[in-house]
Amino acid sequence: MRATIEFEECLKDSPRFRQFVSKEESDIEHLEHRLEKIIKLCNVAVDSGKEYIKNQSAFAMSLWDLQQHFLDNKNAHNALGKLIHCFQEMNKFHTILLDQASRTVLKNLSVFVKDDVNQVKDYKGHFLKVSEGFDNALIKNSQASKNRPQEVQEAANILSASKSCFQHTALDYVNYITLVQARKVPSILSTLLDYYQACVTYYHQGFDLCNDFDEFFKNISEDLNALRGDYQQLEKAMQNRHMSVNRYCDSNTNSSSNKVEGYLFKKKSKGFKTWCRRWFYLSDNQLVYRKRSNEDSFSVMEEDLRICSVRPVNEGDRRFCFEVISPTKSHILQADSADMLSLWISALQHSIGAAIQHDSTHHSTRPQSTNTPNELPAKRRIHWEEFLKIPGNAQCCDCRGQDPRWASINLGITLCIECSGVHRSLGVHYSKVRSLTLDAWETENVKVMMELGNEVVNRIYEARIPDDCELKQPTEQCEIGVREAWIKAKYVERRFVCGMPKPQELLASETAEVLSIDSDGILPAEASGTGKRATLSLGGTRKWTVKRLRRRRQQRPLPKTLSDEPSIYNTAKTGDELEDEDDDDESINIPSMSLSISRDDLLTIGDELALDSYVTPGILGSDQETTDGESDAEIAEELPFSQLDANLLLYQASAVHNLPVMCMAFALGADKLWKNQQDRQRSFLHQAVISGSVMACEYLLLNGAAIDAVDEQGYTALHISTAKGHIAQVYLLLKHKAAYDLASSDGKKALDIAVDLKNADIVTLLRLTRLNDEIGQNDEYNGEDETYKDVMKDFSNCQPRMLRQRNDSNTLESQRSSLTNSD
Amino acid sequence: MGAREDEYDYLFKVVLIGDSGVGKSNLLSRFTRNEFNLESKSTIGVEFATRSIEVDGKTIKAQIWDTAGQERYRAITSAYYRGAVGALLVYDIAKHLTYENVERWLRELRDHADQNIVIMLVGNKSDLRHLRAVPTDEAKLFAERNGLSFIETSALDSTNVETAFQNILTEIYRIVSQKQIRDPPEGDVIRPSNVEPIDVKPTVTADVRKQCCQ
């Protein structure tokens, strides 16, 4: 402790005393300042603590609001309630702590400063006054004159009184100072100790609280683990679901489920063809969509799926598009991925199929589109049963199963569903599978089908099945593995394909066994023809050719020779083939027989593939084919056998659009990219284009011929078809994305040729295609212009009639007849 | 999407129709390229050109289909008109026959085009004052009766060419932008235009136009 001064020194009022007093005064002053600072800071701390608690309780209140959100989850609601309770308790404790702080620190220290320190200060004033009075008394006493004893006496009295008073006061002052100095340590320390105690209490309460809830929250964290487990399971389930989507995709053809829904981009048909995203689903044989926003309204896109068909759209710039087609409408939709596209298409097709089967009466009376003007022109629907009338087509081409419902459009055959699955798995470069009943058929594909058929194709692809063949021919009921092995051997390895026609063998066999691969199926007339030929060919067959193929038509009583017809008229007619027209096509058999008989040194390849004529369905009447040059020779150029190979055979067959022989040449391994070095580097497609046949082009394109191949003059098939004015071929080539901007060696593009020839239709087709591509490039949201498609459809639709119009100058009667004379 | 120079807010398809030789192609080349060719050949099939203009701060790209006037150079398709929101029906003020045929072209539009298509009657070659065969007032009256806008232009000296295209595009814009507010992209039933020939009554068109001009 601090040394106090001797009372004697006080009484003497010595300089030491004075020094002591001033030192103590400054010491107390210093203490006071420190304490005031502490009080101030403590106040700040308490205030900010209160602010903190206020916010903290607001936070807890907000948790209450959150709890309301979990009203439906009892566990969460409960746990949250407990947590909130804890937080609120903690807040309460904190409030108490702050209260204690203000009560102990603030109050005690303030009291100390106010009472004790101020007391000393107050007394200091008093002491100074008394000291001054004592000093005055001393001065007065010293000034008292010796000559005035009364005055001396008076001064002495005052001095003695003052002195006594001063001495008492000085002692008191020292007393106060000493006491304050002595008390400051205990009172400050005890105050802080109290605050410390308050803190201890605060933490202790908190600890107790946590203890109380310990059990509960342990349970909660266990629950949380369980919930996390649930979540992981859920997550897995989500993955599983994704897998099931894939599975669904794969197995969809057989799946009985027709539940599919999701977002698709829908192309607006009107105005500006923008794409919008809508939620689509199938409901009650209807295709329905709605917006993503939560309005409850929805729109019906197709009211009756039974009259609809679905097909993928590859023409546009956008990927994953497909088209839903009904007799009156067409909608372009876009899926998000190839998977989704196939899912949607198969789901829709399945739904359509299911709806049709469900109501088989509707099925049989399904409107045939040709008589409704609203029908989408290019996808004229053929009644699928017509396909089965083609020879051989009533049974699956591979397993001979009854009533096939599928087709391979590039092979020209019909298939049962199981075999179609195997075909699909071969890849589209081998087989392009379509549904007879569900898909919309392009006219040119129908024509390819009509030209070939199972019987013709099997005469080629199943010409030579060895007796000891290790592969079993599949049957309707056989296992999938048998089918797979057979179909692969038949179309990919081409193991059973007929051999290349050879004159020696023909001579040696003296029958049609080699060339007429399946002579059993040949008509009596045909058989006699081949027999005759065989006999006649004993003289030595040195040359071969391919016969121009006429479309198989119902035989007419009065066949005319085509060469008598004016060629331009002929073009229109063959392209048109309206039923009521005076038909000039004869059956294939008659000219072929006469040819084979007439020349003993000439082998007409393909005769053995010719079939009995049969009644072609009305669908062919709508084809746009222009078989220009029908007045040309009935057969292709005669060539020596030394030059006979698959490529040249295909080349020659393309020139006379003889699809069965083309099929045979492909089966014999013709190279799709081959060009004829002997003949201006022309490709098969050039030949087909020159022949004027649409179906031959389509057949080549379906089987992978290079569409933009150029001949030695730099002409593509598009150049040539343009130069020849074959609108339908131009249309077909553009549909298959032929390059229209290639310039030939003399710098001409197809458009230049069309303009030179003033062919309005081809000019329009070419310009419009380019415009459409430009739009597609520039505007990712517009994709393929619908107007473009409309126009293209018009071309495939109006072709025959318009051709006739143009070619027959006297009858310029048209829908725009009113305008014909306007200028 | 970067800032492509080709960006636009609206794409309007507009067809140019009218008799052969009235100057459709030159109207188009004047508008899109500021060119004029006295010896231009007959249009074969159809030609396309585009130009963008600004209306109300929106970029409108006009895709103009210039069709052949001569029947033998017209393609078979009626889809010329499909998706077209505007048509400039052009005649030659110096050839009365081209004006007489306007009615036929109108019928063609009614048969094949959208019923709401905005049609502007354009009397071209207004520079041939001394050869005028169609009085302005007569054409104007005809246009009013049929609910068409009307303007006389000269592709040769550029008179009113810009205005004609500006006016029709603005009018289309007014209708389209109003329509978009009225019915959001919903419920579109695709109807090939040849399904039910819709008789365009002039009054209907007039009503629409009144609305849009408010």
Automatic annotation (TrEMBL), chain A:
The gene is Dwil\GK14415. Residues 549-591, 799-823 are annotated as: Disordered. Residues 577-587 have a biased composition (Acidic residues). ANK repeats lie at residues 680-712, 713-745. Residues 381-506 form the Arf-GAP domain. Pfam families: Ank_2, ArfGap, BAR_3, PH. Residues 257-353 form the PH domain. It comes from Drosophila willistoni (Fruit fly). GO terms for cellular component: cytoplasm. GO terms for molecular function: GTPase activator activity; zinc ion binding. This is Arf-GAP with coiled-coil, ANK repeat and PH domain-containing protein 2.
Automatic annotation (TrEMBL), chain B:
It holds the Pfam family Ras. Keywords: GTP-binding, Lipoprotein, Membrane, Nucleotide-binding, Prenylation. InterPro entries: P-loop_NTPase, Rab_GTPases_membrane_traffic, Small_GTP-bd, Small_GTPase. Its main location: membrane. One of its GO terms (molecular function) is GTPase activating protein binding. It is a lipid-anchor. It is found in: Recycling endosome membrane. It comes from the Eukaryota. Gene3D superfamilies: P-loop containing nucleotide triphosphate hydrolases (3.40.50.300). GO terms for biological process: actomyosin contractile ring contraction; adherens junction maintenance; antimicrobial peptide secretion; border follicle cell migration; cellularization; centrosome localization; chaeta development; dorsal closure, amnioserosa morphology change. GO terms for cellular component: autophagosome; cell pole; centrosome; cleavage furrow; dense core granule membrane; fusome; Golgi apparatus; nuclear envelope. Belongs to the small GTPase superfamily. Rab family. This is Ras-related protein Rab-11A. The lineage of its organism: Eukaryota, Metazoa, Ecdysozoa, Arthropoda, Hexapoda.
